[in-house]
Amino acid sequence: HVQLVESGGGSVQAGGSLRLACTHSGYYSSYCLGWFRQAPGKEREGVAAIDDDGSTTYADSVKGRFTISTDNGKNKLYLEMATLEPEDTAMYYCATLSRQYGGTWSCRLDRFGSWGQGTQVTVS
User: Fold this and answer.
1) Which terminus of the chain is more solvent-facing, meaning fewer CB atoms within 10 Å of its CB: N or C?
2) Is 111 exposed, middle or buried (0-12, 13-18, 19+ CB in 10 A)?
């Protein structure tokens, strides 16, 4: 069972930036690490994921604006968010995610295993 603790959320004006961090209890090759978000009244949306080889997957809605990265020596996962929009307002969760095979292995953005308590991001 992976433990995940998010930090770094807050309020920012549109066009601004935030960096979310996640401390995890260990990164194993059997899953991806990533982020999903959920706004009130909306469905959960996978945002970004990273595999143990460093390959990344992004939702179209954040591609080019968000960057996911890891520091495995510190058991940290990050989400750098730039050019934030009001539509990015949501609770953001660090999570483990499954993989899929379509010629090569890639992270799924729609199947989550464990996740943390979440951190709120508000863009006005």
Assistant:
1) N
2) middle
* Tokens 């508000």 -> residue: 122
Q: What is the DSSP string of the chain?
A: ---EEEE--EEE-TT--EEEEEEES---TTSEEEEEEE-TTS--EEEEEE-TTS-EEE-TTTTTTEEEEEEGGGTEEEEEE-S--GGG-EEEEEEEEEEEESSSEEEEEEEEEEE-S-EEEEE-
Strand partners, 96: 33
CB atoms within 10 A of CB 115: 19
Which whole-number Å values give the CA distances from 39 to 48, 55, 93, 99, in the listed order?
Answer: 16, 27, 11, 25
Are the beta carbons of 99 and 51 closer than 8 angstroms? yes
Quote the tokens at residue 6: 């998010």
Please give the pLDDT value at position 122. 98
Residue numbers in the chain where pLDDT is lower than 50:
none
Tokens representing 33 are 């690490």
